[in-house]
Amino acid sequence: MSTAKDRIRASVERAQSAAKEVPGPVAQERTESEQLVAPATPSSGTRPQSRERSARPPLQRSVRKNVDLSPDQNDRLGDWQRAAARDLGVARVTAQEILVVLVERLLADQDLSNQVRGEVLARR
After folding, report:
1. Separation CA 65–CA 12 (nearest Å)
2. 3-state secondary structure string across 70-83
3. What is the per-residue burial (b if ≥16 Cβ within 10 Å, else e) of 50-67?
4. What are the residues facing 51 on neighbouring strands?
5. Is this prediction's pTM over 0.85?
6. Regarding predicted confidence, which is higher, 55 or 111?
7. Whole-number Å distance between alpha carbons of 74 and 80
C-alpha cells in the first residue's frame, strides 16, 4: 500500500508530464461522414444537393479556469502547499498542480463526484 506522499508525488508527476505533452497539429483529413454527400440517383426534376457537416477541431491548448477563495481559504491552501512541498522534497507545489490532480480524481472517482455534487447542492 502506498503512502499519501507517494500518491501525491505520482499525481504531481502525471500532471507535469501531461503539461509537457503538447499535441501536434491536427491532420486535416475528412472522414466519410464529413465528405460532401450527394444522392446517388437524383429524382427527376430535382438538383443533386450537397451538404457538409461542420466539425470543430478539438481544442489544442489548455482551458483556464479561475477560482475565488476567501482570505482564510487562501492562507490554509498556502500552508498546505508549503507542507506538501516539504514532504515531497520540492521547492514548491503550485495551486495549478493541486487543482489538476483534484479535477482528475473528481472525474475518475464516482463516489467523490457524488460527494461533490451533494456539497454543491447543500451550498446553494
Report:
1. 19
2. CHHHHHHHHHHHHH
3. eeeeeeeeeeeeeeeeee
4. 37
5. no
6. 111
7. 10
